[in-house]
Give the backbone structure.
Amino acid sequence: MDDLYQTLGVERNASASELKTAYRKLANRYHPDKPTGDAEQFKKVSEAYQVLSDDQKRAQYDRFGTADPQMGGGGPGGMDINDMFGGIFDEFFGGAGQSRRAQKQALDVQYQVSISLEEAVFGKELQIEIPATTVCPKCHGQGSIQVSHGFIAMQQTCPVCRGSGRVQDTSTSARKINVKIPQGIDNGDQIRVQGGGYTNNGQTGDLYVQVLVKEHALFKRDRTHLACQIPVDFVTAALGGEIDVPTLTGKVRLKIPPGTQTNSQLRLRGRGMPPLKKGGIMGDLLCSVLVETPVKLNLKQQKLLHEFQSSLIESQNPKMMQWFKSIKSFFRIKE
Ligand SMILES: [Zn+2]
């Protein structure tokens, strides 16, 4: 297993908020919908964050180098350091509590769901089916088996159930759990449904639903803010006017001030994403103006523009004026 801190590119003493920032950045970069996407890396980063953002799992990872028998420390057939030394560590760290906790984590269910940006705006209800389970026939619900190496007998994570003590029971129908994805959820956010996991020996694991928000064709998201590009014809850019702008909650009129330049940012307040936290404020929609130069002009249009051009005075193109000044002074220095 890779070092989880290295995976997220943070120090071992990183704070919760540093972890979150690092995770968001990487999750955004590796999101499978992005040109820079990398599903394998995305999974690694998500798994690393899942462990390090959970105080209990992080403490266990710092101590044992693994957080969860399901997550690759042991794996099927593999030897898990936590199991090998389980007996010793249990004595040091408060008895059976540690292994009970590890067993409970093995009952957790991980689930990934992909939603659209529109669904992230309005929130979504979904139903998740948790398959029924029955006692593992290999370890009889213990989660571990004894393996003999010569004279030495060692405990090993059960390769059949991977330590959970349960296997899928196809004879019984699945349990259905309704999960509410709240408005404003961001890519990579995780919803925990307490008690939504598997049950074994009177313990029930949790259900973790990780939400992936797909890229949108028109809008780029930055937390609660959205950004889009809007082409504006050069006459409207010069004279000013109003245009219809699509937002995720319907069309909005946007005022274009006279003399608007290309790359100007026009802000539509409160037209971004809803806040995830209660009492938070709606994000904004940032419209980046792209002034379009008309193409394939006919003779009459060309004549009009020539007339218009001859009517222009220098100060009406301030950037050009500034540019020519700079060029002049540049050559003067050179001489
Ligand atoms: Zn088993």
Remarks:
- DSSP finds eleven helices and 17 strands in the chain.
